[in-house]
Amino acid sequence: RKEVEQDPGPFNVPEGATVAFNCTYSNSASQSFFWYRQDCRKEPKLLMSVYSSGNEDGRFTAQLNRASQYISLLIRDSKLSDSATYLCVVRDWRDDKIIFGKGTRLHILP
Amino acid sequence: DTAVSQTPKYLVTQMGNDKSIKCEQNLGHDTMYWYKQDSKKFLKIMFSYNNKELIINETVPNRFSPKSPDKAHLNLHINSLELGDSAVYFCASSQDLAGPSYEQYFGPGTRLTVT
């Protein structure tokens, strides 16, 4: 099993729809989880951290399922500007391991 | 006001050359990183540097060497460049090396092409 896995997509979703994607991780000792967004030919930018209790930031909701070892990102009322690649990041402080997933490409269609 | 800056933005060079990429952060962060993003868009950490402690990804060839003149700068020097080194190199910084305040801020990237 790969350390961090994401469905590469692309997810082609009409504007206004709700879209969700997951990221699975193999190391049960992982402690920190994040979602980053990367636009074409740009740097990754932090979208949100993922907390154990789940967290929401506007139209974005992130959840962590430790038992099944995955994190999820839900985007409601999707906008054209949400089109990007979404990278999941998993961190194990003890090993100093920082692992990025390969990303899920999202295209919002007008 | 750029938080993490890198120079140059584009670098085209021939095989066998030695080159450096510079990175500066004005966020007052304690930790800096170098990442490589290859043609398949896979982002992989190369180094992290915190309070003069260097943590190396063991898969990185020793032709790559980070150099930190001070806390705000982490430069990447590459010797004997190879075709496979062509990629986008991102510098990043974070407040902490561990813990919840570890969110990373990335520079704009340096697109290296080795011919």
Description of the molecule:
The complex is a heterodimer of chains A (110) and B (115). The model of chain A has no long low-confidence stretch (mean pLDDT 92). By secondary structure, chain A is mainly β. Chain A has no helices and eleven strands. Chain B is an all-beta fold and 115 residues long. Chain B is built from no helices and eleven strands. Chain B has strands at 4-7, 10-13, 19-25, 31-37, 43-50, 53-56, 64-70, 73-78, 87-94, 105-106, 110-114. The termini of chain B are far apart. The model of chain B has no long low-confidence stretch (mean pLDDT 90). Chains A and B meet through strand 5, strand 9 and strand 10 of A and strand 5 and strand 10 of B.
Helix count of chain B equals 0
Our estimate of the beta-strand percent of chain A is over 45%
Number of strands of chain B: 11
Secondary-structure class of chain A: mainly beta
Tally the beta strands of chain A: 11
Shape of chain B: globular
- Terminal CA distance of chain B reads 34 Å
User: Helicity level of chain A, as a percent range?
Assistant: under 10%
What string gives the helices and strands of chain A in order?
Answer: EEEEEEEEEEE
Q: Pairing-aware structural class of the strands and helices of chain B?
A: mainly beta
Radius of gyration of CA atoms of chain A, rounded to a whole number: 13 Å
Alpha-carbon distance between the two ends of chain A: 37 Å
Average pLDDT of chain A: 92
Residue share in β-strands of chain B? over 45%
Low-pLDDT residue intervals, each spanning 5 or more residues of chain A: none
Order of helices and strands of chain B: EEEEEEEEEEE
Question: From the alpha-carbon coordinates, what is the Rg of chain B to the nearest angstrom?
Answer: 13 Å
What's a quick, concise take on this entry?
The complex is a heterodimer of chains A (110) and B (115). By secondary structure, chain A is mainly beta.
